[in-house]
């Protein structure tokens, strides 16, 4: 199994969010659980640019897609 290309730290930097471990944990804890009927990119806590990036990366199955999927799972887990 290959290591992911990107880590949460990289994704949070790309999204313009604080990317240290404590900030990532705090962000996930404060925004979960994301209801299953809301797509990740449609969550109300993203700005338009962040939502567009998430949507595009998943649609294109780009190299960011795996870590975006991992964030989606993390936000839905209680």
Please give a structural write-up.
With 78 residues, the protein is mostly helical. It has one domain (8-76): Uncharacterised protein PF10982, DUF2789 (Arc Repressor Mutant, subunit A), CATH 1.10.10. The chain is 54% helix and 0% strand. The chain has four helices and no strands. Helix 3 packs across helix 4 (65-76). The model has no long low-confidence stretch (mean pLDDT 93). This is DUF2789 domain-containing protein.
Shape annotation: globular
CATH architecture: Orthogonal Bundle
Biggest pleated sheet: none
* Rg, Cα atoms, Å: 12 Å
The CATH homologous superfamily is called Uncharacterised protein PF10982, DUF2789
N- to C-terminal distance: 27 Å
And the CATH topology? Arc Repressor Mutant, subunit A
Beta content: under 5%
Class by SSE composition: mainly alpha
Number of continuous helical runs:
4
Oligomer: single chain
The number of distinct β-strands equals 0
In the CATH hierarchy, what is the class? Mainly Alpha
């Amino acid at each position: 199994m290959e290591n992911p290309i990107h880590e949460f730290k990289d994704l949070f930097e790309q999204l313009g969010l604080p990317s240290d471990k404590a900030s990532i944990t705090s962000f996930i804890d404060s925004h979960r659980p994301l209801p299953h009927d809301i797509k990740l990119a449609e969550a109300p806590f993203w700005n338009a640019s962040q939502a567009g990036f998430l949507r595009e990366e998943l649609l294109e199955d780009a190299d960011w897609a795996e870590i975006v999927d991992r964030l989606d799972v993390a936000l839905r887990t209680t």
